[in-house]
Amino acid sequence: MARPRQISRVQIPPRVKGFIPVGYYKDQSEPVQLNIEEYEAIRLLDYEGLSQEGAAKIMQISRPTLTRIYERARKKVATVLTEAQQLIIEGGNVLFNGNWYECEKCNSTFNSPAESTVKTCPLCGSGNIQHKEG
Ligand SMILES: [Zn+2]
After folding, report:
1. Predicted confidence pLDDT, tens digits, the chain (134 residues)
2. Fold annotation for 8-95
């Protein structure tokens, strides 16, 4: 049974869309897809050295959910390294911190799902929107 997926908060989007192995790769195979929350779990736990408890707080998800995301992420990275696969970083169920906007006209608050810049309010179409911190 599929559980409802929790939305993870992500502090910084990944800098690249993926990685290609040097020297050899199985170019006819599908690249391994690491989604954004899996990337963020590895960044917080392995790069920043946070505890699972600390990372779960930052991503605003439960600790068991973080553990599941992290285990999936590690398995994918291990597959990429061992099988010389390409890695694509995309997809996921996330909100980026700092990408919140407020419409001056209709006073709605909304979030941009990617690093793209929002120019108009998705609810009333007004261009009079303010970027909010946090
Ligand atoms: Zn509006």
Report:
1. 455 567 788 877 788 889 988 887 666 678 999 999 999 999 999 999 999 999 999 999 999 999 999 999 999 999 999 988 899 998 877 776 667 778 888 887 777 655 566 788 877 889 898 877 65
2. Arc Repressor Mutant, subunit A (1.10.10)
Q: At what angle do helices 52-59 and 63-83 cross, to 10 degrees?
A: 100
Distance 130 CA to ligand 1 centre (A): 11
Q: How far is the CA of 131 from the centre of ligand 1 (A)?
A: 13
Helix (H, G, I), strand (E, B) or coil at 115: coil
CA of 132 to the centre of ligand 1 (A): 14
Please tell me the distance between residue 74's alpha carbon and the centre of ligand 1 in angstroms: 41
Ligand 1 centroid to Cα of residue 116, in Å, is 18
Token digits of residue 60: 């605003």
Query: pTM of the entire structure?
Result: 0.69
| CA 97 – ligand 1 centroid, Å | 21
Residue 114 corresponds to which tokens in the numbers above?
Answer: 């990617």
CB atoms within 10 A of CB 5: 12
